[in-house]
Write a structure and sequence with these properties.
Helix content: 40-55%
CATH topology of one domain: Transcription Regulator spoIIAA
Radius of gyration: 22 Å
Structural class: alpha/beta
Distance between the termini: 40 Å
Shape: globular
CATH architecture of one domain: 2-Layer Sandwich
Strand content: 15-25%
């Protein structure tokens, strides 16, 4: 069969979930291509490929774009349409929103899509295929999820080649990403992990980690084929069930490139930090989320004390690692004074970069249920008109329109202010202005510049050209042109 994976915007990071599916399907003998719809001659090239399957990976918000795009494509292309990703996992009723959605996949997709397409290709009955809700002859068949893939080393490496044919910028960037594990045992209210674990209860390990040797083998392939001078390990928490010492030795001797990863403060100790440093780690991302104890632990359910977070930051910096903090503002019940506690925590510790997001209560999460039950979501907002961005606006009700404006604007200056706390009085004046695109642009440019100063990735002139172009294309195609539910 011929399968086309469709993205409605220009990707600025590798869609690794899609890349895993691509390789599984190629191993099954299918012909697979990847398309980004804003690119030149998108429909002409897609029509020439003549796919049997149109496949989409969707998050909440992006589901609208994909559904609309799919409706347009199906008018002229005779194919079935399959959807997967977080939105389908937690809102499988999405299949009912359009007669042109033939199937949605819940949870892990590799062996689910493999089995489904094998049955279809061989003319077998496929209505009972685990992980899938399927529309067949006007009826929707709802199947349970299969067991998890517990041994991640059995999965083929993600296919980057097919992605890079469509997006040359991703192939040229010297920053490459890798997924080392799946699953998280923590129950942060804004995250999908707790409902995901409930969906898979009794069907596999909560957290599975690839072996250090398996990771090194994938990195060697990337290193041989593409520009690669810096690695980002994108797991929620890197090394949760992994031997840091074994990884450090292998990575240092066989790869030897700087990298960064995500860590959770209460899982760190001096030995782990030293092994990260030994391996070549130059920076870590740590989710602080809120400096206010009530918001952090009662609303966001982080279960972390300020003492533990402070101690981890101090130990990381003492060992020569740069620290990114991740922060969420605009939470239900939060005041601007509480937001300033979050700001002051990162400023006090002089972190190298303080990334900031506005809370979006995605469907299926505990924070969504909390917001609905306590009437914190603005009137008229539902799953089909919620903004897809966690950086542009907010659907949360606040004490006043003025406080909401302050929240939205302060997010745009948060990282700048943490690095330059003496500018806080001036920032407090700016946030009184109406939210605007200039603030958005400042935030994007400053954060990109600040990040580049910290991790100092090595670029040549060709790399730099493609990366700048790719990121500008992404900003214009995603933030400005496609999110019609954002005020921007």
């Amino acid at each position: 069969m011929r399968i086309a994976f469709i993205e409605p915007a220009i990707a600025h990071v590798e869609p690794l979930g899609i890349a895993y599916l691509i390789q599984i399907l190629i191993n099954d003998g299918h012909t697979v291509k990847y398309f980004e719809s804003p690119r030149k001659d998108f429909f002409k090239r897609l029509k020439k490929f003549n796919p049997d399957v149109l496949a989409y990976s969707v998050t909440t918000g992006k589901h609208r774009l994909c559904r609309t795009l799919n409706a347009s494509l199906r008018k002229k292309i005779n194919a079935i349409s399959l959807f997967g990703g977080p939105h389908c996992t937690f809102y499988p009723e999405f299949i009912e929103s359009s007669n042109l959605i033939d199937g949605i996949c819940r949870g892990e997709g590799e062996f689910a899509i493999s089995e489904l397409l094998k049955k279809m290709e061989n003319g077998k009955k496929y209505t009972k295929t685990n992980n899938w809700w399927l529309r067949v002859d006007g009826k929707i068949y709802k199947n349970p999820v299969r067991n998890k893939v517990n041994d991640l080393d059995t999965l083929p490496f993600p296919n980057r080649d097919v992605i890079y044919v469509e997006n040359k910028g991703l192939s040229q960037t010297p920053i490459k990403r890798i997924i080392a594990s799946r699953g998280c045992p923590f129950n942060c209210s804004y995250c999908f992990n707790r409902p995901y674990n409930a969906l898979y209860a009794g069907k596999g390990k909560v957290n599975s980690h690839r072996s250090p040797r398996n990771l090194i083998e994938e990195l060697k392939i990337i290193q041989k084929k593409y520009p690669f001078t810096f690695l980002k390990i994108v797991d929620d928490t890197f090394g949760f069930n992994m031997d840091y010492g074994e990884f450090a030795e292998l990575y240092k001797t066989e790869i030897g490139l700087p990298f960064m990863c995500n860590v959770r403060p209460n899982l760190l100790n001096e030995d782990k930090i030293k092994n990260l440093k030994k391996a070549g780690c130059v920076a870590v991302t740590m989710a602080v989320e809120s400096g206010n104890e009530f918001i952090r632990n009662k609303i966001l359910n982080r279960n972390l004390s300020e003492e533990i977070m402070s101690k981890s930051i101090i130990t990381l910096k003492r060992n020569g690692l740069k620290v990114y903090t991740q922060n969420i503002i605009g939470n239900p019940g939060e005041t601007f004074e509480m937001v300033l506690e979050t700001f002051k925590f990162s400023a006090k510790h002089q972190v190298d970069f303080a990334e900031c997001f506005l809370l979006t209560p995605f469907y299926g999460t505990d924070i969504y249920k909390y917001c609905v039950e306590n009437k914190y979501i603005e009137d008229g907002i539902n799953i089909d008109n919620m903004s897809q961005s966690i950086q542009l606006g907010s659907c949360i009700k606040f004490n006043s329109a003025r406080e909401k404006k302050y929240m939205i604007n302060f997010q745009k200056f948060f990282s700048f202010g943490v690095k330059h706390p003496q500018m806080l009085p001036f920032i407090k004046i700016l946030i009184k202005l109406p939210p605007n695109k200039l603030f958005v642009l400042f935030n994007k440019l400053y954060d990109a510049w600040r990040t580049s100063r910290i991790i100092k990735v090595k670029f040549n002139i060709v790399n730099l050209f493609y990366v700048v172009k790719m990121n500008l294309d992404h900003i214009f195609s995603y933030f400005i042109k496609t999110d019609h539910n954002s005020k921007f």
